[in-house]
Amino acid sequence: IAGITQAxxxxxxxxxxxxxxxxxxxxRHNAMYWYRQDLGLGLRLIHYSNTAGTTGKxxxxxxxxxxxxxxxxxxxTLASAVPSQTSVYFCASSTGQEGYNEQFFGPGxxxxxx
Amino acid sequence: GQNIDQPTEMTATEGAIxxxxxxxxxxxxxxxxxxxxHAGEAPTFLSYNVLDGLEEKGRFSSFLSRSKGYSYLLLKxxxxxxxxxxxxxxxxxxxxxxxGAGTKLIIKP
Lengths: 114, 109
Prior knowledge:
Order of helices and strands of chain A: EEEEEEEEEEE
Largest interface: A-B, 21 and 22 residues
Number of strands of chain B: 11
Oligomer: heterodimer
Distance between the termini of chain B: 40 Å
């Protein structure tokens, strides 16, 4: 079934630990995104990639890094987790950024940093 | 700064009509999206407006007025399964989506 997968589904992490959230899409979409969603706030863009080999910073990039080695995969790494990074993380993808290009979302990763 | 405003919560009755408003102030405008998000799930696309006017898609319609920085999502013949959060998002001059906090819609029998 075509779509986006994320792993893990949920994770409890000790502060200071390194963590990589995985995201894979099989729709051959050029653009991919990482968002965090916190109660009472809208989705906030962490990092994005317009095409394989390129990445950009979103609204809240500090403490996170990404890579886009190929079209399908877009991992998000927390180098040294802090409690403020407790959130639900969504990966999304779209054909492009312009026009009627909706973003398709993965099921999310619920991360708790203690 | 960029800002998207939506009501936090609304309540409506099964079978009725509800209108969810969204006002925005963004650096540039390249389209407005509405998404539905059920509790514990991912957002799913509902509608897209880039020109002024009404876009109708079954029981759901979305309206846009660019001069007023205003949109609404209209849901008709409400069903219990429509209980969800509805997210308004504007694509800005950098072609990134700026999201509102969402409107939680509660449907009562």
